[in-house]
């Protein structure tokens, strides 16, 4: 059964010809879906429209301005925290080099080389520790245990992503 023209006639508030009205009435007697649409449409047309309370637009505009102000403030604070955190991280990483750069060139070169060697040996030690773990862990952890661990790590990562999304989500509507 083709419902399309009848649904269009019911939803669009266009005048129908007498032939279309007759077809629609005969279809409504047979089709429960279209008769439900007709009843809903009739209920919508007979519903009493309630006007908003006085001052609604003023309250809405005030609330909207307040929310925008709060959002702007959160963005400013977030940017400030991000910049200060980045500067702190930069100072922590480059602080010793900058401090030594203000001293003699020999001390600066010594500090830069020692810092480079420190980073290099740290990465090498982490690589060796990772290689040892990759050789040792399979002897102690079964495949099922490894799957459970990976599932837990994935779940924690998923929860972290959801929490970041909820923190950064802009509320919709006012």
Features:
single chain, mainly alpha, 6 helices, 174 residues, 3 domains
Q: How does this model look, in words?
A:
With 174 residues, this protein is an all-alpha fold. The chain has 3 domains: 4-46, no CATH class; 74-138, no CATH class; 141-174. Helix content is 83%, strand content 0%. The protein is built from 6 helices and no strands. The chain has helices spanning 4-11, 18-30, 32-46, 56-101, 105-140, 143-168. The longest helix is centred in the middle third of the chain and has 46 residues, at 56-101.
Question: What's this, in brief?
Answer:
The protein has 174 residues and is an all-alpha fold. Helix 1 packs parallel to helix 3, helix 2 crosses helix 3 and helix 4 packs across helix 5. 83% of the residues lie in helices and 0% in strands.
Outline type? elongated
- Would you identify the regions where 5 or more consecutive residues have pLDDT less than 50? none
Along the chain, the helix and strand elements come as HHHHHH
Structural class: mainly alpha
- The number of distinct structural domains comes to 3
Tally of helical runs: 6
Radius of gyration: 35 Å
Number of strands: 0
Strand content: under 5%
Instruction: Sketch the major β-sheet.
Output: none
The overall average pLDDT, rounded, is 85
- Cα separation of the termini: 43 Å
Percent helix, as a range, is over 70%
């Amino acid at each position: 059964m083709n419902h399309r023209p009848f649904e269009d006639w019911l939803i669009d508030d266009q005048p129908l010809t007498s032939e279309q009205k007759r077809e629609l009435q005969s279809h409504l007697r047979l089709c429960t879906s279209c008769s439900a649409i007709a009843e809903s449409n009739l209920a919508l047309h007979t519903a009493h429209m309630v006007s908003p309370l006085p001052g609604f637009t003023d309250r809405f505009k005030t609330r909207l301005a307040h929310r925008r102000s709060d959002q702007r403030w959160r963005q400013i604070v977030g940017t400030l925290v991000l910049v200060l955190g980045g500067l702190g991280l930069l100072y922590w990483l480059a602080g010793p080099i900058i401090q030594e750069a203000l001293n003699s060139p020999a001390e600066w070169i010594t500090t830069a080389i020692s810092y480079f060697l420190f980073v290099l040996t740290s990465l090498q030690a982490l690589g060796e520790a990772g290689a040892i773990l990759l050789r040792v862990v399979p002897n102690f952890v079964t495949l099922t245990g490894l799957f459970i661990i990976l599932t837990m790590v994935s779940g924690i990562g998923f929860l972290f992503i959801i929490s970041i999304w909820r923190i950064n989500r802009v509320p919709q509507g006012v």
